[in-house]
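FORM 7B: Structural annotation worksheet

SECTION A. Query
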Amino acid sequence: MISVAATGYFTAFSLILAIGAQNAFVLRQGLVGRHVFALCLLCALSDAVLISLGVAGFGYAVTIFPAAPGILSIGGAGFLLIYGWRRFLAAIQGQYHMELSGQSKGLTATLVVGAALTWLNPHVYLDTLGLIGAVSTKYPANGDKLLFALAAVSASFTFFFGLGYGARMLAPLMQSVRAWRVLDVIIGVVMWFIAVGLLQISI
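SECTION B. Predicted structure
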């Protein structure tokens, strides 16, 4: 049982660990210190749904609707290009009054962006429905599958809440406009880099 749980946990954790658009957004929101719990919960619950579907055997869903990856890639790339441009624009303008005072946009706007960065990213389906679902096939027993899925889901909760609240340790470094400019440029580059990758997938 320990082996099954460890495999589920570290498989999911290693896949989530890669720096991506979703993680960058959670990090930025964690630095501001606003709506962190709700955003982390949204990301973790989204992963929980997808991981559950993957382990339950729905990884072949793409074969039913083969156009899905292309559609998601184009939609996700478009969103990332726009969001990346907004981060570059913010860095150019340098108006970080809200960030420096610990404020941010409203809860609804934050969750909408978080949901878009999660559900419009084709890689999340590859990781959860595909890879995690494939690894779970090593365990034919229902009890082992359930344990594997629970461990994988717990890895998602651990990561997102750790990232969101752990970001506060970097808060002392983010007390200047220059620091926020650097962060937004880095996030913009990450967003556009991922967008280019998604467009290559769709072509």
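SECTION C. Observations
The chain has a mean pLDDT of 81. Residues 2-202 form one domain.

SECTION D. Sign-off
Analyst initials: ____
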